[in-house]
Every structure is written in C-alpha cells, then in structure tokens.
Amino acid sequence: DADVTQTPRNRITKTGKRIMLECSQTKGHDRMYWYRQDPGLGLRLIYYSFDVKDINKGEISDGYSVSRQAQAKFSLSLESAIPNQTALYFCATSDLTSGDTGELFFGEGSRLTVL
Amino acid sequence: GQNIDQPTEMTATEGAIVQINCTYQTSGFNGLFWYQQHAGEAPTFLSYNVLDGLEEKGRFSSFLSRSKGYSYLLLKELQMKDSASYLCAVMDSNYQLIWGAGTKLIIKP
Questions:
Q1: What pLDDT score does A98 carry?
Q2: Alpha-carbon span A5 to A75, nearest angstrom
Q3: Fewer Cβ within 10 Å of end Cβ, chain A: N or C?
Q4: What is the pLDDT of residue B20?
Q5: How many Cα atoms within 13 Å fall on the side-chain side of residue B96?
Q6: Cβ separation of A109 and B87 shorter than 8 Å?
Q7: A109 near A88, Cβ under 8 Å?
Q8: Would you call B31 and A102 a contact, using CB atoms and an 8 Å cutoff?
Q9: Cβ B33–A108 below 8 Å, yes or no?
Q10: Are B64 and B92 within 8 A, CB to CB?
Q11: B56: Cβ contacts below 8 Å, ≥ 6 apart
Q12: How confident is the model at residue B95 (pLDDT cuts 50, 70, 90)?
C-alpha cells in the first residue's frame, strides 16, 4: 500500500459542484501539503499544514479550503468548482526534523476535470 | 519575485550523458532538490544539495553553486526508463519549496 493515498484518483464534475479530495498518510509526518500541477507550470502550493491545529494558505488558495482532521488526514475542498480548477492535484508530506532534508513524499495524484 | 528556470525539453540518446540545468532567484536558500516525474505519476525525490559541490548517487549526480544560483542534474548511461520530467525546486528562507516548471527529457534509441 502507498504511504500517501489520495482519493479519488480521477473525477469529472460540473461547474458549481462541491468537490472534496482526500489524502491520508501512514508515514507519521506532521507536515502535509496540497499542490496543483498544470501543463507548463511548476507545482503550485494551495495549502499546507504543519500540524493538526495549523493551516496555512499557499500561493493559490483562492477557491479552495482544507481540513486537517487528524495527523494522518488532510482534505482539500472546492466549494464551487470552476473549469480553470481542472488540474492534477497532489498531496504530499514531509518531516523537517534534525538531519532530515525536508524531502516531500507525494501521493499518486488526483486528476480533476471541471466541465 | 522568486524564480526557477530550467529548459522546457531536452532530447538525448540511450547510453549517452545529459546535463539538465537549473538557475534560481529566491528569498533565501535552504537547499535545492531534484525530483523525477514520469508522465501521469507523482514526483519522486532524486537529490538534495545544500552545500556547493557535486553529490553523486549512482548514475545521477547533482551539482550546486550557491554564489551563481545554479544547479545541474547529470544523468549518465541513459536508459529508456529515464524518459521523464525533471523538476528543480529550491527551499527558501521560510522553508517553502519554489518549483521550476520541469524539464521533459526524451530518450531516443
């Protein structure tokens, strides 16, 4: 089983619908992230969380919200999806502790299409 | 602003050597990462440089010059499975990762 699991892996929805992407991890990491990836662009950070009570906006948080339900779970919601939110979404974890490089561990991605 | 530049696409021949360059301008520096991403898959960690010099790991090596804001990833003895995108990312002073758009590497027989 993957250490970082995302569901759903693929989703097609319509404009205006609410969508939730879920992420769970078994790595025991405190830090979790949501990124989106679009062709020709670098990964862009949507939200990140350094522990259960910590939520921070990233570079492109408008139109998104998150919930850190537990150390192992971090969900991303699109309250009212729009077509330009069509993208590949990645959840990632890291554990920046002494001696650690802060390497990110990614889930397999959730491909979202908004019609 | 913060910026990471790397070539959009490169082509190389199986068995050859290829060097993928990355230049960066960031607010502070806490390390540079290279990730490999096959089409439709998640990025996977390749290397991390925080001090100047060359880090070698099997067929892959990564070089860093902090004074020049420059890094390269060197892939030797290229194999068809090395066809992928290679992402350069820099950790800034806030320990946030700034990502380049990636270099798509095409390996030809």
A1: 45
A2: 11
A3: N
A4: 98
A5: 18
A6: no
A7: yes
A8: yes
A9: no
A10: no
A11: none
A12: confident
- Give the integer Cα–Cα distance in Å for A14 and B56: 48
> Encoding tokens for residue A7?
């569901």
Residue type, A77: S
Q: Which of B34, B96, B104 is most worth mutating to test chain A (most A CB atoms within 10 A of its CB)?
A: B96
Q: What is the DSSP string of A6-63?
A: EE-SEEEE-TT--EEEEEEESS--SEEEEEEE-TTS--EEEEEEEETTEEEE-TT-TT
Cβ neighbours for B91, distance < 8 A, ≥ 6 positions apart: A102, B29, B30, B31, B32, B33, B97, B98
Q: What is the DSSP string of B74-104?
A: EE-S--GGG-EEEEEEEE-TTS-EEE---EE
Whole-number Å distance between alpha carbons of A61 and A47 = 6
Q: How confident is the model at residue B94 (pLDDT cuts 50, 70, 90)?
A: confident
Q: pLDDT for B62-76, tens place per residue?
A: 999 999 999 999 999
In which band, very low, low, confident or very high, does the pLDDT at B53 lie, cut at 50, 70 and 90?
very high
Provide the terminal-to-terminal Cα distance of chain A, rounded to the nearest Å: 32
Q: Show the tokens assigned to B59.
A: 């067929």
Phi and psi, residue A52, nearest 5°:
-60, -35
pLDDT, one tens digit per residue, over A58-104 is 989 999 999 999 999 999 999 999 999 999 999 999 886 644 677 89
Query: Residue B81 is which amino acid?
Result: K
